[in-house]
Amino acid sequence: MPLIVLNTHCVLGVKISRVSKSNIMRLILCCPSKQPLHSQAALFLTSTISTSASPSKWSQAIKQSSSPLKSLQIYTHMHHQSIPIDSFTVLYTLKSSTHLHNLPLLRHLHAHIFKLGFTSNVYIMSSLLHGYSNACFGDARQLFDEMPERTTVTWNTMITGLSRSGNVDKARSLFDEMPMRNIASWSAMIAAYVNTGHQRKGLALFCKMLTDVKLKPDEFTLCAVLGGCTKMGTVGFVLGKSIHGFIVRNWWELNLELGTTLVDMYAKSGSLKVATLVFDMMRETNVVSWTALICGAGQHGYVNEARTLFYRMQKAGVKPNELTFTGILSACVHAGLVEEGRMYFELIYQYGLKPNIHHYGCMVDLFGKAGELEDAYEVIMKMQPEANMNVWGSFLNACKVQNNFKVAERVIKRVVEMLRPEKDGGVYSLIADLFVMGEKWDDAERIRRLMVTQNVRKARGTSFINYGGP
Questions:
Q1: In 3-state terms, what secondary structure has residue 198?
Q2: Which residues fall within 8 angstroms of residue 412, CB to CB, at 6 or more apart?
Q3: What whole-number distance in Å separates Cα of residue 341 and Cα of residue 331?
Q4: How many Å apart are CA 153 and CA 158, to the nearest integer?
């Protein structure tokens, strides 16, 4: 069915007559917000703009509003009071609403756009396309196919949307179909490859952009390429250093995004000194920058550096996030710092955060390596969400290392019920070894027969837990 039904009654199945103040207000009140719902409604009802004000004043009020919900409240008030709505009012409302990822709301606004006759406005339709691509890619695809005029922005939006949905091949086909490509188009396609695990294809496209098309990259292009470098080992590290050289030679300022990406690349490669130098050269930093540095230090065993960085971040008034705690806890695991690990784990609650599977996994690994199996078991029993196979594997491996079959026996039956032959070959072998250690010969043989009948193979070089991050 076409996305836009060409009659005066219906767009996307939404009746125009029902696109009213009450409907949009209902959608506003359903949107998540830290403010109480009654407070949101009060903000709407106490609007101080005169109904006789020009449309430009109303559109500026929407543009400068403090939140998406406030923008919608002003827009709804305009509609209810029959105040003329111009293209800028619609455009600013759309741009604000995109952050809510609310599909019914976008469809109601789409109905308004159709009713007001703005479907030929390329800026409004591009903004609507962007909103749909974040909320429902199927709707975005339909809208794109029916757009009478497309700009490079709309093409780039579709490429990004396709990559987010995992369809990178279709994104490349769309990229090849583009009548004109700008640097943003190339950056979007390179990022699409990198973000879906096709780093080499992304770097190949980057080289083609430089040599064949002779386009000069911008910061977004380089951020995308550097993101791929972090996942390509030595080759990626060499390329990342070359990109850093390009930035220096061209006197580019290390803004927040580019600087953070460079810090992340060096930190993940183990070059913590260079990562710190880049970090210190940045004019602006945020929790992502600090976290990249802390996680890199923790991942490569720079324990004292990770602790110092965490302390510096606290002194700077930057609130750590969940990934920051994963980084500092992984550093504690590397060094066997049990009491400090407990302290950092408690800090998670003090900062108003909830521990996730990675934090619990770090604690299980920390206690297990220290031989404190009862504490590790207690962590698993209290976990929310429940332990996954990485956590169970880490715990059972600790039981094996500590030669403690008695503790392992408490959970083996439960773990066996969760095993997946295609993914958990290492855990099958571990459980068989534990049964041997406990002189449960029949059970050990049963597990080994099970491995044969289910064609279970242990993948080489696997680890039970990745506490360095998600």
A1: coil
A2: 396, 431, 434, 435
A3: 9
A4: 9
Helices 152-164 and 122-135, interaxial angle, to 10°?
A: 0
Angle (CA) 293-285-311 rounded to 5° is 55
Q: Provide mean pLDDT across the span 264-272.
A: 94
470 pLDDT more than 70:
no
User: What is 309-324 written as a DSSP string?
Assistant: HHHHHHHTTPPP-HHH
At 390, list the tokens. Answer: 């990485």
End-to-end CA distance of the chain: 40
50 pLDDT tier (thresholds 50, 70, 90): low
Give me the count of residues in the chain.
Answer: 470
Tokens at 232, concatenated: 């390509």
**CA torsion angle 174 210 282 253 (round to 10):** -110
- Residue with token string 């002189």: 439
DSSP conformational letter for 150: -
Degrees to nearest 5, angle at CA 114 with 9 and 101 = 105
In this structure, are residues 387 and 381 in contact, taking their beta carbons and an 8 Å threshold? Answer: no
Yes or no: say if 102 and 94 are a contact pair by the CB < 8 Å rule. no
Which one, of 94, 90, 79, lies nearest residue 117 by Cα? 90
Determine the angle formed by the axes of helices 389-401 and 425-437, rounding to 10 degrees: 30
Work out the average pLDDT over 15-29: 44
For 58-85, give one letter per residue: b (16+ CB within 10 A) or e: bbbbbeebebbbbbbbbbbbbbeeebeb
pLDDT digits (tens, 9 = 90+) for 391-445: 999 999 999 999 999 999 999 999 999 888 888 888 999 999 999 999 999 999 9
Two tokens, residue 220: 């977004």
Instruction: Kindly state the helix (H) or strand (E) to which residue 192 belongs, with its residue range.
Output: helix 183-195
